[in-house]
């Protein structure tokens, strides 16, 4: 067992907490009294909040960019070790992000077992591994220009399959239990590929990857409507996704990224559908105004996030044994310090979860049974309107985290310290 050595001096967190502790307790008690009037036990909600966990993507620790530009900041991480250290800062302060999701070959890992030890020493473990066949690497024999798992050229498909199997093997050494597959495959022109044959090729490739999964692993398939292919994508929507997952077998499930849908699509309904068929495998949280904007979760539409969690909480209640979606933040932090964005996003996500827990499910079922539309709506709205911040802060304080994570982070001076130690990162462009 690696000795635990958290990145920030715990004294910094304690000094910060001393200032806030009494106010948090006061707010928590006031909310507790309010919830008691609704026959809700605040401590029971607090325990569920304390158990909540959402993974951080290793790439989310770095400063992202658009295809136009990237604006680096001094002290940003430049390799997987530095990314892990920044993820550990996030976890130390918020205590609900104990797992990191890796992405290959973005994360160059010489010794996965050693990295697992290193992460454990920082209080972290590893979540799903993500394969990358949406861009070429230097020295790679075949190009993904025209696709990867669905490419017309069988040599390209074999290369993409082999990469996914490599990811599984690295993931086994890291302690991961899932492979997330997102491909950029698709077309830019009508007629470019047969829509039917390209899906056939994808399924055939996916079957070979599926066959290489360890028995206790899952394969999470991520759909996306458009981008980088703009006319059609091979795994375009949840319908295609669930059909493929069903064809592959029980270990294959669907992954919903909030930014991967047509505008105005009812994502919470998709969640309910996938859960109903036992195929809801995971979530990539982010927010958007126009498309796959990769903005911070809850920044634009916190109400949608609440409605998604409302479905998730209902799905768990309906089938607690089968319900175990892998939650991850998937964002591109272009103009903020990534640690601050990850802290703000984790907070928005767990706040949506806490609000969804406050929905009076039996009253809702009763209102629905009576077709009392306004009563049903008001039950949801009452939960959404509740300020749950003291529940979240209390859970953090109890777990050793910070009352106000972003303020504590700023007080720690972590980034300016790292600016002196880490080498400058490169200018350039690229989504992440
Ligand atoms: C694709 O847009 C995506 O959502 C996939 O999850 C990728 O792995 C991730 O973003 C990073 O580009
Ligand atoms: Mn994603």
Number of helices: 15
Integer-rounded radius of gyration: 22 Å
Q: Helix and strand succession? A: HHEHEHEHEEHEEHEHEHEHHHHHH
Unreliable runs: none
Q: Could you give the count of β-strands?
A: 10
Approximately what portion of the residues adopt beta-strand conformation?
A: 5-15%
Q: Determine the mean pLDDT.
A: 97
In which range does the helix fraction lie?
40-55%
Molecules bound to protein: alpha-D-psicofuranose, manganese (II) ion
Distance between the termini: 33 Å
Which strand order do you get reading across the main beta sheet? 1-2-3-4-6-8-9-10
Largest sheet: 8 strands, parallel
Given the helix and strand composition, which structural class is it? alpha/beta
Which word captures the global form? globular
Write the layout of secondary structure elements.
Elements: H1 10-37, H2 42-51, E1 56-57, H3 80-94, E2 99-104, H4 112-121, E3 125-131, H5 154-174, E4 178-181, E5 186-187, H6 195-211, E6 218-222, E7 232-233, H7 238-248, E8 252-257, H8 267-276, E9 280-285, H9 302-318, E10 326-329, H10 338-357, H11 361-369, H12 373-384, H13 389-399, H14 405-412, H15 414-421
Helix pairs in contact: 1-13, 1-14, 2-10, 2-13, 3-10, 3-14, 4-5, 5-6, 8-9, 9-10, 11-12
The chain binds alpha-D-psicofuranose and manganese (II) ion.
